[in-house]
Amino acid sequence: MNENMKEREFQIIPPPYRIKVVELLSSEQIDIADNRERREKAIKQAGYNTFLLKENQVYIDFLTDSGTNAMSDNQWAGMMLGDEAYAGSKNFYHLEKAMRDVYGYRYLVPTHQGRAAEHMMSELLIQPGDFVPNNMYFTTRRVHQELAGATWVDVSIDEAHEPETWHPFKGNVDITKLDALIREVGAGKIPYMSLEANVNMAGGQPFSMENLRALKALCDRHRIPIMLDGTRLVENAYCIQQREDGYQNRSVRQIAREICSCTGGVTVSGKKDTLVNIGGFLACNDKKLFLEARAMVVVYEGLHTYGGMSGRDMEAMARGIYEMVQDRHVAARVNQVEYLGHQLIQAGVPVVVPIGGHAVFLDASRFLPHIPQEQYPAQALSAALYVESGIRGMERGLVSSGRDPITGQERKPKLELVRLAIPRRGYTHTDMDFVAQAIVRLYRARDKISGLQMGYEPKRLRFFQARFKPVGAKLMG
Ligand code: F0G
């Protein structure tokens, strides 16, 4: 399987839509694209943090695939049917039906976005002193687990931390590591197994159904529920369809449903898979958890029939849920990401392999071997890519990893990456060609890029707002 993936000839899959409306770039954005000096000034003003750039200073925005999707005509039509009643909006019931039809959980609690659902799940299930095993981490999910008093434990397979290894399922859980944790701390101290689909920080990497079944068998034996982060569920389901024996003839929708059926509940950021700009939810099968979450959502989000979303947002999400599981939609989406990744691999640019479902990840450790990890090579590379071309990506390395809440030391991750996350249905293959050319150019000039030192450092989720300075006189000498 590994060799097959590596050798496979790239075939383009055209997307199942035509473009009816386009979003025009401003003259400032076009000017940014043409004017390197302006880009140098802009990134300096932003403290070399791409999160602090203004959108009108960005030409191609690959900061995130979150909330940046293009909605369909069908979803926009649904927006006009928003029922903004405070209680019992009809759009809530459409969303509930869509969630039950596709994900298959019994109960739904809507939230304004994913982290609100993570907050509720963590607060309701975790006791101080607990341990929560995860297949790697996602920033917001981990911070909520830790705020609720748990110790986050990584039980991902070793290959997840190896950017050069062609493993088809780097999102897999290492069952031996989980078993060892259960023996060490006891199942009573593990409120749930936190399982992320298409693991973002590993490079957008899926788990296999075989692994999920083995995980379920172990967790069932110890009565530990599996709680899914289903933010990128369909991209994981698609990878299973493409890579796992026995799944070639199953639809993405069937596979996604099978994944959910192995778990007790889910948190979802609707801003990704479900093709909307805002929204999220917690869903589960356990009535007690549902009732507690429903009582909590009114404290933090809004009434339980809108949870921070407007009626029109819920309608767009309900429609997005049916669109997201269409095979051709997911295939073309992942294929566009692979199209960019494939060009970079062919040019010898170091990237995480296999190419992920939602993003191409540049491997900053190999791209900039002259910059030590203490000088934030991935942060420097994301800033340099912006200076080179007006393309905005995001650091996913030491800055994102942050500090250990107990020792205060920086948690050095094995992966030092720059993520180029591609919004769904938003960009064309011409954009991908442009991005590939810019990165190849930057790779040739990589020796000129200098490291960074941190100036301002926020206490939590520091990557969003931290500010930096070049270690040398300039970022690019
Ligand atoms: N889980 C995963 C796997 C995510 O990628 C995100 C958000 C969340 C949870 C939180 O959801 O943003 O709706 O509150 N990821 C964004 C990203 C921010 O760029 O990857 P949210």
Structure characterization notes:
The protein is of the alpha/beta class. The protein has two domains: 2-65 and 327-470, Aspartate Aminotransferase, domain 1 (Alpha-Beta Complex); 73-324, Aspartate Aminotransferase, domain 2. Helix content is 41%, strand content 11%. It is built from 18 helices and 14 strands. It has helices at residues 2-7, 27-34, 36-45, 73-79, 90-102, 114-125, 139-147, 175-185, 209-221, 233-243, 252-261, 287-300, 311-324, 327-346, 364-367, 377-389, 398-401, 429-444; strands at 60-61, 107-111, 131-134, 151-154, 193-196, 226-229, 265-269, 280-284, 359-363, 391-392, 394-396, 417-421, 452-454, 468-470. The strands form five sheets. A five-stranded mixed β-sheet has the order 2-8-7-6-5, sandwiched between helices. The chain has a three-stranded antiparallel β-sheet with strand order 9-12-11. The chain has a two-stranded parallel ribbon with strand order 1-10. Helix 7 links the parallel strand 3 and strand 4 (151-154). 51% of the residues are buried. The mean pLDDT is 96. The structure holds ligand F0G. The site of ligand F0G has 15 residues, from helix 6 and helix 7.
